[in-house]
Design a protein that fits this description.
With 122 residues, the protein is an all-alpha fold. Helix 2 runs antiparallel to helix 5. It is elongated and about 60 Å long.
Length: 122
């Protein structure tokens, strides 16, 4: 029971991180100091997506699930939980590049607006 609970906690943490990577720049508009957390998180999210790496949280979650009696899963977090819903046929390198580019473009757009507002405010 404890392993499944810990695995679920990792899952929630992981999903929260993914959401923060994608939309954290919006939080920077309200709380500018968040940029010191968001910029490295966004860079990590973009890098791991473009490189096709598996986030270190994924094997931790899988190991906890197995210790809790579940089967676990192969592949990465995005592939297992998110891509399975959006792209049932599976995750390809092309799709990973598209997802990484979406994250990059969203963040560049928001940060460009923030920088523009700061420049106009001075």
């Amino acid at each position: 029971m404890i392993y499944r609970t810990l695995a679920d906690a990792i899952l929630i943490l992981h999903l929260s991180f993914v959401v923060f990577v994608l939309f954290g720049a919006l939080a920077v508009i309200r709380w500018p100091r968040v940029r010191w957390l968001h910029v490295p998180a966004a860079l990590w999210g973009i890098l791991i997506t473009y490189a096709g790496w598996i986030c270190p949280l994924t094997p931790i979650e899988v190991a906890l699930r197995r210790r809790g009696g579940d089967v676990g899963y192969a592949g990465g977090f995005i592939e297992h939980y998110i891509t399975a819903v959006i792209y049932p046929a599976g995750l390809t390198r092309r799709t990973q590049w598209i997802l990484g580019t979406v994250v990059l473009v969203v963040n560049l757009f928001v940060y460009a607006r923030i920088v523009g507002q700061c420049a106009r405010g001075r």
